[in-house]
Write a structure and sequence with these properties.
By secondary structure, this protein is mainly α. It has 16 helices and no strands. Helix 5 packs parallel to helix 6 and helix 8 crosses helix 9. The longest helix has about 40 residues.
Length: about 375
């Protein structure tokens, strides 16, 4: 057997091993946690906040399944804690984002206060702040605080939590800064551009909207939480993970989300990051280059194949969407798949099968087509 064929066989074997781990030991935990938080959302006293929370659960179910993808690679006895932390954090992110989209007299301050829950959620021991202080409604029955408490408690159980705390705080800070500006309404693009341009010199080669995308990503937080399940993780290891995921993998993550949501963002008047490119050719070249850097950055990590698999699964999740099949996205799709290399084919095939199964089950049940759950990851930012 030639070296290329042997390498491809190893890639397929690694993917199948990861998928089995996910479906057999992670997915049941995800479903249990998801049902738990959906029941809690249904008990929110304020009818408007209750509807927002439940609608967010329905619309972002793929987020929750993908958030726990890294747990497939942690020791079995630590998986429950990683899943619990991941689901609580992602639910907090999605809910805060949905709340920030509602009208507010001070949208920037409102979005900042709501998303501050992310900082507290990733920092065991941190005290709650008044998350709703700029929001017109606040009676959620303790829902947001319970999410934050659950994330804190799960992270505290991870044996190497002290090694990642500094990097989790940085990841949360980036997300909060981006999300506050992303909900700035009329000044949205200007605020994002000013903030991202200030960061761009520290990340050579990134345009301002690419740097902004990197800041919005939650990938590094999930990677760090999973890594902290290993009691041997050092602070240097944690720093290497943060460097590997930020900025390149994070930028790819959010730009692919923006690519998939381009039409919806434009029609709703929201900022579309991929609209910063002058042409589809430029967009394809840039996304291909960022994807190449993202996959290359995984090679610096121990167990690099596992990280590359997660990145490939995330990428093919977006690229298997119907919107990614349109002519506008065709060249960018081709470049990103090329950057994924041998990992592209098995992950893309499973994503397509999963989407077909999702559509069939929706038709047979007579319900609208839900967001399809991924084979391993569907890490999104909305």
């Amino acid at each position: 057997m030639g070296s290329i064929a042997w390498r491809r066989l190893c890639v397929v074997a690694a993917f199948l091993d990861a998928a089995l781990r996910y479906w057999l030991t992670v997915f049941p935990l995800v479903r249990w946690q998801t049902r738990r938080w959906r029941r809690r959302a249904a008990a929110i006293p304020d009818p408007v906040l209750r509807k927002i929370a439940l609608d967010t659960h329905r619309a972002e179910s793929g987020n929750l399944e993908g958030a726990a993808a890294f747990a497939a690679f942690v020791p079995l006895r630590r998986r429950a804690a990683v899943v619990r932390a991941s689901i609580a954090f992602q639910t907090t992110y999605d809910y805060a984002d949905s709340l920030a989209e509602q009208p507010s007299r001070v949208p920037f301050s409102n979005a900042w206060a709501l998303h501050d829950a992310l900082r507290v959620a990733l920092c065991p021991g941190a005290e709650h702040t008044a998350y709703y202080r700029h929001h017109p409604r606040a009676d959620d029955g303790g829902y947001l605080r319970a999410l934050v408490d659950s994330s804190q408690a799960a992270i505290r159980r991870l044996p190497s939590q002290p090694a990642i705390e500094r990097h989790l705080a940085r990841a949360a800070g980036r997300v909060i800064a981006h999300q506050a500006r992303a909900h700035g309404r009329d000044d949205e693009a200007r605020l994002l551009a000013a903030w991202a341009r200030a960061r761009t010199p520290r990340q050579p080669g990134l345009r301002w909207w690419e740097a902004s995308a990197a800041g919005a990503s939650s990938l590094s937080a999930f990677a760090l939480m999973a890594a902290a399940a290993d009691p041997r993780l050092s602070r240097d290891d944690a720093a290497a993970i943060d460097r590997a995921y930020f900025p390149w993998a994070g930028a790819l993550h959010v730009l692919l989300d923006s690519l998939a949501d381009r039409s919806a963002d434009i029609s709703s008047g929201q900022c579309s990051l991929v609209e910063g490119y002058a042409s589809t050719d430029e967009m394809a070249a840039r996304l291909g280059a960022i994807a190449t850097m993202a996959f290359a950055s995984m090679q610096s990590l121990r167990r690099d194949t596992r990280h590359a698999l997660i990145l490939a699964a995330m990428s093919t999740y977006y690229l298997s969407m119907p919107s990614a099949q349109l002519a506008y996205a065709a060249k960018a799709r081709e470049r990103v798949l090329a950057a994924a290399g041998d990992l592209a084919s098995p992950t893309l095939a499973v994503m397509r099968i999963r989407r077909r199964l999702g559509r069939r089950s929706s038709v047979s049940a007579g319900t609208p087509d839900p967001p399809p759950a991924p084979a391993m990851a569907s890490l999104r930012v909305r």
